[in-house]
Design goal:
- Helix content is 21%, strand content 30%.
- The radius of gyration is 21 Å and the shape is elongated.
- The strands form four sheets. Strands 7, 8, 9, 10, 13, 14, 15, 16 and 17 form a nine-stranded mixed beta sheet that branches. Strands 3-2-5-6 form a four-stranded antiparallel beta sheet. It has a two-stranded antiparallel sheet with strand order 1-4.
- The protein is built from six helices and 17 strands.
Amino acid sequence: MQRLQKVIANAGVTSRRKAEEMISTGRVTVNGEIVRELGTKVDGHAKIEVDGVPIDKQQKTMTFLFYKPRGVISAVSDDKNRKVITDYFADQDARLYPIGRLDYDTSGLILVTNDGQLANLMMHPKFKVDKTYMAKVEGIPTATALAKLRQGVSIHNRKTAEAKVWIENKNQTKNTALVGLTIHEGMNHQVKLMLRDVGFPVMKLKREKVSFLDLTGLQPGEARQLSHEEVDRLYRLAEGKNV
């Protein structure tokens, strides 16, 4: 016997947290009867339906953490026939798409899913979680430039929020530096524009983290599917709840 919400989540219908909401709102039936009580246990022979559709017939939701290489479009298609993110998921039957975007020449972490509810929550302007980038820049930023970045600079006619900024390393011979930035906004080209504003153009950019997720164990072009627990944690973040 297993808890009903766990059975629904394990079937790939949705996250465990969302399964609990489905149960509470009367969308789930077990052997033809509506079940609203969380923690209800069912055996392997129970006929479970969500919105009248058996769970084994439901579209399976999947969310992947993908290490986007440079030179790949954050889209499902491209009119110039350039490589797109979904080319890396050709073996999946589900219609996957990226959540948000990374520039063509930017590498790093991006989420790919067919969970429309999660995607909508995460792309909403209210969704503000830490995103950490590493930027190789021309020149070596001064303490004054770093202070300006931390306090916020003006781009797109608005001032950016306070940011965490540090120099990861620097190359005096080549006059370049690797600068780390952690921001929680998502304006177009924000990191590049911030660094250009203080006089240090970006040569190469990589997004290394989104909140608790990072690229550990992945090489460019590789992906891993998020666990139920990670998806639930993303839902809580997107809904503004503590994790």
